[in-house]
Amino acid sequence: MESNRANAVRERPVRVWDFPTRLFHWLTVALVAGAWITERFNWINLHVRFGETLLGLVLFRLMWGCVGSETSRFSSFVSTPAAAFRHLRHLFRREPDIQVGHNPAGAWMVLLLLALLLIETLSGIYVYNDIADEGPLSEIVPARIANAISALHAYGWYVLLAAVVLHLCAIGVYALAKGHNLLGPMLTGRKRLPSTIAAPARASLWLAALLLALAATIVALLATYL
User: Fold this and answer.
1) What is the protein's membrane topology class (predicted)?
2) 12: which strand partners?
3) Which of the four CATH numbers 2.40.30, 1.10.1660, 1.20.950, 3.20.20 does domain 20-225 have?
4) Given pLDDT bands bounded at 50, 70 and 90, which one contains residue 226?
């Protein structure tokens, strides 16, 4: 009992997720849901706006993953597939959560979701421009490639939804099997960790704003010329 109290005393709340990363996460949740709803009701113009905004967020996240805060950088959390499999072997072992950022398996899920989001949004912009005859590149792309991009966008949506469901299931498994609360830190940014674990470094919000503006500019150019 005394040992447990001592361990509790040595813990303190640590800011593990910065504001830009959390904002990206929850805006992406809202935009994917919005894209699904607008697609179901055939609200094409709104669907395209959601897709363009989502592409901007994904581009921002890719840049933030290179120069952003420590726990958001790919170099700090992407591990080898072998490390991910070793982690999954203990998936149902109940143990304290002392992971500062993404665990090895979660890191690969992040990469998968980002890749699927990038493919879906880029192909969506091309498909819309091709149908609306807005993008100059749509005139020079061969029909078979244009059809392949359209098919990629259509079927990629279902792959993305399957990945989202898998992600949600993983959150539930970690909560029930391991006792790890993955949602709380992504909401508040904070997590209780032993005092021996250093708080991760955070990047400037001004840098995040600059990267977001750059991402928006890239999306505007793609929407015009793709």
Assistant:
1) Multi-pass membrane protein
2) 193
3) 1.20.950
4) confident
